[in-house]
What we know:
5 strands, alpha+beta
Amino acid sequence: MTKSKNSVVKSTTTPVTTPVITKNSITTKRFVIRKSLIGTNTVISFINNKSVVCTYDHDLVYNAFKAKFDLMPCFEKYGSYTNTNNLPAFVRALPELV
């Protein structure tokens, strides 16, 4: 006569965690796209000449117009593109800014 041992298998579940994406926040005096901010998940805010707060995601805007920025002489020479008065028209046309 043989005895059989029943083994108990305990199942465990590990909780699924969603990655946390931290956003950096900068307040400037103008619209700016800088090479040094590419890939840093930065949200930039500024007050335009009509006293309206404009907020945009730097990477979202850069990625949408990467070819345009890379061809600009100022972007090549200075590593940035700025607009003092407002969001550029091509940026305002984006459906989502943040």
